[in-house]
Design goal:
This protein is mostly helical and 252 residues long. The protein has helices spanning 2-25, 37-69, 80-104, 106-116, 131-148, 152-170, 177-183, 190-196, 201-204, 214-218, 243-248.
Length: 252
């Protein structure tokens, strides 16, 4: 299993790097001049490095303990790839409600707003999270893993899809209109998620999906707004902050 974790990490890094390069050659929108490109990228990647540093010592042990404590699902659960697919759907349903809770519960929002304060979206936005949110998310997910006896292979597949999905729907990658229209019926696309980062709170509090787009339609949280070239990204009434300010923001 350690080899599986390494393979996942390398695969995700290379594919995210590919998206990062592609969005620079095929951008969907032009970044406003007032946003300092290199500064925000360094800030986003610094938050990612912070999370990467604590992951082997905190997040990975939490996941491994949860998997080892999980119950035996026996013959009540499909095996093989069908079982993994079912696990992915269940975990994506969990992360939908977890994401929604991050917007509705003030304590969770204190951490999650660090992600939303980014004033532009690209692949680096997908890894811009406060370490407190990453830790809380891992702890809550561990409960789901233990209760349902979800195996490590399913968790790894889900994490891989979430990281790649986040890179994709945060990206500024230009897609053919028809292709994105069809993709959006099943998965979260950039146009869907950019509305979620619109600095109008009504839109920010919508489009919570991570992998599958049908959860928002099913639970009535889809925004009627459509992405446009003038859509301002961020949190309504607030501006982005320095890295040190972002790290202490949830605790102030």
């Amino acid at each position: 299993m350690p080899d599986l974790i390494v393979y996942k990490s390398v695969t995700v890094f290379l594919l995210l790097l590919g998206m990062f390069v592609a969005e620079r050659y095929f951008p969907s929108a032009v970044m406003p001049e007032q946003i300092t490109t290199n500064h925000r990228k360094v800030k986003n990647l610094s938050l990612w490095l912070c999370n990467s540093a604590i992951s082997p010592f905190v997040i990975f042990p939490i996941t491994m303990y949860a998997v080892s404590w999980g119950g035996d699902r026996g013959n009540v659960w499909p095996s093989g790839w069908s079982g993994i697919l079912l696990d992915v759907v269940i975990l994506d349903l969990w992360i939908y409600w977890w994401h929604r809770a991050n917007h509705r519960m003030p304590l969770l929002w204190r951490f999650h707003q660090v992600h939303h304060l980014d004033q532009w979206l690209d692949v680096t936005s997908a890894v811009r999270f406060h370490f407190g949110e990453v830790l809380l998310s891992a702890l809550v997910r561990a409960v789901i893993v233990v209760c349902l006896g979800i195996p490590l292979i399913s968790v790894v597949v889900f994490e891989t899809l979430v990281l790649l999905g986040a890179g994709f729907h945060h990206s500024n990658l230009r897609l053919p209109v028809k292709i994105e229209k069809y993709l959006s019926k099943l998965i979260i696309t950039p146009s869907i998620h950019w509305v979620h980062h619109h600095n109008i709170q009504q839109d920010t509090d919508s489009n919570y999906g991570t992998l599958f787009s049908f959860w928002d339609r099913l639970f009535g949280s889809s925004s009627k707004s459509k992405r446009d070239a003038n859509m301002v990204i961020g949190v309504e009434g607030l501006e982005d902050k320095r890295l040190d300010q972002l790290l202490i923001l949830p605790f102030k």
